[in-house]
UniProtKB/TrEMBL annotation:
Protein name: LysR family transcriptional regulator
PROSITE patterns named among the record's database cross-references: HTH_LYSR
Entry GO terms, CC: cytosol
Species of provenance: Phreatobacter stygius
Entry-linked SUPFAM superfamilies: Periplasmic binding protein-like II, Winged helix' DNA-binding domain
Record key words, sorted: DNA-binding, Transcription, Transcription regulation
Length: 316
């Protein structure tokens, strides 16, 4: 596909927004039939639309198999840009509505563990009080999943432990406060009754740890190595707070939790904090936005509220 014929085809054929929306729907569902149903198209019309888009661009966007469809290299490139275009159009619509009659719209928030207990709920509560026409979609995950979603425009803002990015990767980060991390166990656990517990003693325990892909896991492993110890091998890898808390309560497993979450559960008698001497550095908690893009009005007011709440948390 040479550059000039491709550009000419785009100008002449006028690729339409509903076609981009359909291509994104196909990728999300990995099925032309499921995308047709989601976009209220018949199966023949959906198949015809995809062929039309591929003809306009002069490339194959999806590989068809018996199990469904997967994007080709060309498809992945188009999908990245299509998601950004659709996100910008949504932001444009929200900004026009804000100018006409007050801020409204939707904010897609990605949340990492450190922001889930207090920062995010308090921020949403204030947002609801001040801007009742703004809705929030929360997507939980690890940074290796959420950061690409932020870049692609599927998320408007990311809250939690700041990602460590090499160079300019399309993400602008802002530090809000530092959050210590605690070792936790069930109430009555022998280590929780002690005044001090050495790194070697907690190293010998059975563990629930976050997956290796997470920043917290990297910091945990580094802290044990700094003590001259090999990192523990967990019995379970998980960042699901509720499931972890239930397992901790029913077993002798140890886990790491941000202090905010640990204090909440301890206050309700659900866990105990182990006074461990590990030297784990407090996490940098902050917000991340797409670099070089003007956030929607709804995202801007939500980010301001997050900063306000974070300022209060930093003083605690």
């Amino acid at each position: 596909m040479t550059k000039e014929p491709a550009v000419r085809r785009l100008r002449e054929a006028r690729l339409k927004l509903h076609q981009l929306e359909f291509v994104v729907a196909v990728d999300e569902r990995r099925s032309i039939a499921a995308a047709a149903e989601a976009t209220n198209l018949s199966q023949p019309a959906a198949t015809r639309m995809l062929k039309e888009v591929e003809a306009i661009l002069g490339v194959v966007l999806f590989d068809r198999t018996r199990r469904g469809v997967t994007p080709t290299l060309y498809g992945e490139a188009l999908l990245r840009r299509a998601r950004l275009i659709l996100a910008e159009l949504r932001h444009m619509h929200e900004e026009l509505l804000a100018l006409a009659g007050g801020v409204e719209g939707r904010v897609a928030v990605g949340t990492l563990l450190a922001a889930s207990a207090t920062l995010l709920p308090r921020s949403i509560k204030i947002l609801r009080e001040r801007f009742p026409k703004v809705s929030v979609q929360i997507i939980e995950g690890t940074f290796d999943v959420l950061v690409p979603m932020l870049r692609a425009g599927e998320l408007d803002i990311l809250l939690g432990r700041l990602p460590r990015l090499a160079g300019d990767e399309g993400v602008a980060t802002e530090l809000l406060y530092h959050e210590p991390t605690c070792v936790v166990a069930r109430p009555g656990h022998p280590l929780a009754r002690r005044q001090q517990v050495s790194a070697a003693e907690i190293r010998a325990a059975d563990w629930i740890l976050p997956p290796r892909s997470t920043l917290l896991r990297a910091d945990i492993d580094a802290a044990f190595r700094a003590c001259g110890l090999a990192p523990p091998q967990p019995m379970l890898e998980s960042v699901t707070v509720l499931a972890n808390q239930r397992l901790i309560a029913a077993t002798d497993l140890l886990a790491f939790l941000p202090r905010d979450i640990a204090e909440y559960y301890r206050g309700h008698g659900l866990i105990a904090i182990v006074p461990a001497e590990l030297g784990l550095q407090p996490a940098e908690v902050g917000l991340s936005l797409r670099a070089g893009r003007l956030p929607s009005p709804a995202t801007r007011v939500f980010a301001d509220i997050v900063r306000e709440v974070a300022g209060d948390l930093a003083l605690i």
